[in-house]
Amino acid sequence: MSDFVLLTCEHGGNRVPAEFKRLFQAHQDLLESHRGYDPGALELARLSARRLKAPLHFATVTRLLVELNRSSTHPALFSIVTKSLTSAERAVLVEKHYVPYRSRIEADVSKAVKRGRRVIHVSFHTFTPQMDGVVRNADVGLLYDSGRPGEAEFAGILKQSLANRRPGLTIRKNYPYLGKADGFTTSLRKKWGDSVYLGIELEVNQRWPLCDHREWRALQQAIAEAIAATIARLSRR
Q1: Three-state DSSP class for 75?
Q2: Is the CA virtual torsion 81, 84, 87, 92 positive or negative?
Q3: 116-151 pLDDT, tens per residue?
Q4: Are 162 and 229 in contact (CB under 8 A)?
Q5: CA-CA distances (angstroms) from residue 202 to 38, 141, 148?
Q6: How far is CA 148 from CA 49, 151, 176, in A?
Q7: How far apart are the first and last CA of the chain?
């Protein structure tokens, strides 16, 4: 049976629901920054979904409201904006935004695994070119758990496939973050083994979506094609 390809984008927008707009009146700059969302991530995810003909789950509510890519007990689940809310108000955020999003994706994974299919999950993100005064030296990062052979193989093939299409690109594994750090893919790995679940976070330097549109579009096409080629190669084994 063929692999089940699932795409997600946890930080696709910086939308603030009407009932919480009061909280952000003094935080507009923060909301528009990389801390509010991942510029370009949803655009790339949508293009990839069309190319792969794969389902895409995405969120457009700002990560400053509740962080969908963190475990429910992580200190960064709530931002400096929403930490001021009461515990009851934060519980409403979790129930209304966090739980439904993650539950839908977990349900898709569970259904595919029960049908005997291996799930290939690609989560799309972008990262700020500079953090705390340090320039990030990469165009694309591939985050995965190096202790899971399936993910290591997928990341290796994807890196080479993308490099073949864009020879001048700087592509790094587990950069600018470690793939096994707290995140949605990490939580899913705890529920499903390497033989049935592969979780890859694909990170693109935000200088690309903020540069010339034609260059950004070309990179998106190359990434989508590289993912498709990687999946096709693995499926032949």
Answers
A1: helix
A2: negative
A3: 999 999 999 999 999 988 999 999 999 999 999 999
A4: no
A5: 12, 6, 17
A6: 25, 6, 19
A7: 12
